[in-house]
Amino acid sequence: MLNHLNQAQRPFVIAHRGATTHGDWSRVAPENTMPAFLEAQKQGAAIELDVMTTRDGTVVVHHDFKTGRTFRLPTEQKAVRQTDWAELRKARFNPAAHEREIQRMMGQAEKADGAYKSPERFDRLRVPSLDSVLRELPNARFCIELKTVNPFASGQLERKVAQMIREKDLYDRVTVLSFSPVSLRKIKHYDPKIKTALNVQVPALVKQWPVLLRGFVKLYAQRLAGVDAIQPSYNDTTPALIQIAHSVGLPVIPWVHGETRAQEQEKFPQLMAMGVDGLITNAVDLLNEEVKNHPPRLC
Fold it and tell me: Residues of 240-269 as b/e, b for ≥16 C-beta within 10 angstroms?
């Protein structure tokens, strides 16, 4: 079990790329930045973030494989893996993309009266390194997602993340996530004590046949990936999937996939009633309220 995520409340709450949205507009923050991480910590949530390596091997917190959407370089936009850390630090926050994403999640028309505009203070934001985030948030709990173009490559990202967790003694505060069982096997190879979770998208055919679903969980997630938990999308989470995963000791922690805040809020009661162990959300404030007002009865 992921003991470091165990809280007094269930399901435990994980902020997707930090706590990016809120009913109070002044608390909205850009994804994968310190303001979003500080807001998540303020709301008592664990922090999900994305990492990759620069060309010279610095582990940075960034979701997209290329610059341009959240942070823009002064000249041409490049793949992060083809950019040195000194150059990536020159990337500037892209308010237009941030505004569009927040408006989408808030269910707000882009050209509506009073449409969200990012405050000027965000203009000073820069792409953070993982090391700096871990240093500045010494008590936070993290779910670190590995963004690997080719999981069969050198393993530099996995090795560096595992080394950081080991040197900082973060075993009780970190889970490593990935869509790649290969990457998660590498993490376990570098340090078996690190907790891992496999992000999964369950094929439609698999969901329809219990025998295939059981094989998917036991063979793909448990044996091939060797993980400590599975993370399906909200839409892929079913009572059957949870029952099978729990039968082999795997917690189930669904992740948000394109929903607006209102759509997430509609799904929270159903997911909680299924007995999920945690939820990764863009709407930490709404999930906290749901857990507080309607605590689920867990099996």
Answer: ebbbbbeeeebbbbbbbeebbbeebbebbe
